Amino acid sequence: MSILVEQGGLLTTVQDRGRRGWQQYGVPVAGAMDQQAMMLANLLVDNDEGEAVLEATVLGPALRFQTANVFAVTGGDLSPQLNGQVIPMYRAVAAGAGDKLTFGGLKTGFRAYIAFAGGLDVPLVMNSRSTHLRGKFGGYEGRRLMPGDEIGFAAPRPTLPNLPARRCDPEEIPGAELWLRVIRGPQDKAFTPKGLDTFFSSEYTITNECDRTGAKLEGSGIEHVKDGNIISDGIAFGSVQVPSNGQPIIMLADRLPTGGYTKIATVISVDIPRLAQSKPGTKIRFREVSVQQAQDLYVQAMGRRRELAQRIRGAAVAADVRRFLVRLEGREYQVSVERCE
Hints:
alpha+beta, globular, Cyclophilin, 2 domains, single chain, 4 helices
């Protein structure tokens, strides 16, 4: 009950929500770069939203199904194909034993997420199946997937109730320009008024020095009061560090738990998926929002996802229920029968 990796793609790893609760011990979080795409992929195949998926960057893998199972692809469009036929994104698809999932090339975005019904059978390491590449632990042997790797399915499902209803609209994929909303600080006092104005009024470009740890930006230098060094403190997903050279770095999923550079701002949670789908060369500008605004936007996003989950699951259940009028001893009864696998 598994998939065989025939080609690993440029960078394909096992990721879930991340290794949370261990930063105090110096353990990085890791996890999916685009958490929204990961959660939607799992929702489409009837998994828990935080179940482990495959994250593919730029060039997707070639996977051979050894066992029939349902899967879904979300996030960046890397041109998924099943047995050479183009398949839609953001839709549950049934694959049979021997079928081959491949990717033709990058169309939009930067990272795709592949979820499999029942989840992937890889070990839990500190309550997570996520791969941390620099630490060489978690996921599949702590590394990217390579030809010949075989990953088991935990509980494969050859079909799901009302498969055609398991679909949703694609998420917004950024183009060549991206506005990111940020909360100022925590070290905003380490920058001059001119430096703060530069940060919020200038355009920055994602450089080729961009990976799962962080995205280095290039643009107008941001002026410090002294320099960019501080006593190391905690780093959040989306923290914008500014070293003494004045060039910002946005810290991402594989960031270390602490760092010693001043942080001018933090990208809000709902904008991180768009950042995760942005490739080198993308132009970025920053817009300040309050903590309350960021929280309101997060609550709204969670509400939309709950509504989507109810719609998908409700449609699947409704389509698999049969209703009958039964007459028994002169009385009529409305009976509903739901098919169970």
